[in-house]
């Protein structure tokens, strides 16, 4: 994979010091409504400090000849995180299905559009960008499994700044778990630092909500999620966390789908299937 911009790409830079939100789209021909087959365009977003960059697509038409999930040698949109001045490719987008919102893991984000396939159906994309801050933000994750699925989450890192019992009186940031869209009394509200925390849903639907205010700053959380097709008998065990003891549930995963999940004072809405 070539470095971003290799081969003479046009570059447009958006800085949060000058603009807080706006729209992006490739340049189209006035006659055909299509963009050139040899187009290479870079969109670079530069935030400040703890800001994050969010991209929400309103139109996306980059059809692939290989199918809806394989891009191959076609028109593609590549998403890069910029970490320590190095670009890390995190996702390649194509097809005609509207992608889920993109959220950077830091103050900078890079999108690269490469057009090499002359297709009369390729209209490109239209996206709105926003520079977000960590103050007063609610971050929701919704998990939707199959009819017989259960959701299991194992937190490998958890640092949500707060003081137990993590309620409004303590002005804490916190994470809430629920088997419903509304509040679930089965689960406590979590804040502080936890080690190897494991949470499991009762059924096919599960929700995680992280609430962050403008008083305290943590570094967020990282978790691995699995969809289990067969419920397993849980084994209760006690883990020692940095703020005391927490009882977690251990179960053997039977899922074939596993991904990394990360939220660091973010603001976005994700539906996972």
From TrEMBL:
**What InterPro entries does the annotation carry?**
CUB_dom, Non-NMDA_GluR_Accessory, Sperma_CUB_dom_sf
PROSITE patterns assigned to the protein according to its UniProt record, in alphabetical order: CUB
One Pfam annotation reads CUB
| UniProt keyword annotations, A-Z | Disulfide bond
User: Has keyword Ribosomal protein?
Assistant: no
* CDD domains the UniProt entry points to: CUB (cd00041)
Name a GO CC annotation attached to this entry. plasma membrane
| Keyword Disulfide bond attached | yes
Task: Name the chain's protein.
Answer: CUB domain-containing protein
């Amino acid at each position: 994979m070539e470095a971003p911009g290799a081969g003479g790409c046009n570059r447009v830079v958006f800085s949060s010091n000058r603009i807080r939100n706006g729209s992006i789209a490739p340049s189209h021909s006035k006659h055909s409504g299509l963009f050139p087959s040899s187009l290479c365009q870079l969109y670079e977003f530069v935030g400040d400090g703890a800001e994050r960059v969010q991209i929400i697509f309103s139109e996306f038409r980059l059809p692939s000849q290989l199918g809806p999930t394989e891009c191959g040698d076609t028109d593609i949109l590549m998403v890069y995180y910029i970490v320590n001045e190095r670009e890390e490719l995190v996702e390649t987008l194509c097809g005609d299905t509207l992608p889920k919102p993109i959220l950077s893991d830091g103050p900078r984000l890079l999108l690269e559009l490469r057009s090499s396939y002359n297709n009369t159906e390729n209209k490109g994309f239209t996206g709105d960008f926003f520079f977000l801050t960590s103050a007063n933000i609610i971050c929701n994750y919704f998990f939707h499994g199959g009819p017989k699925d259960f959701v299991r989450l194992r937190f490998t890192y958890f640092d949500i700044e707060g003081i137990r019992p993590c309620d409004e009186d303590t002005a804490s940031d916190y994470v809430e778990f629920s088997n419903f869209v509304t509040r679930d009394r089965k689960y406590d509200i979590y804040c502080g630092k936890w080690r190897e925390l494991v949470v499991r849903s009762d059924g096919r639907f599960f929700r995680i909500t992280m609430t962050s205010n403008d008083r305290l700053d943590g570094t967020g959380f990282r978790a691995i999620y699995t969809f289990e097709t067969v419920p397993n008998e849980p084994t209760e065990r006690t883990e020692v966390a940095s703020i005391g003891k927490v009882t977690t549930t251990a179960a053997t995963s039977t899922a074939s789908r596993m991904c990394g999940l990360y939220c660091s004072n973010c603001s976005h809405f994700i539906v996972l299937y």
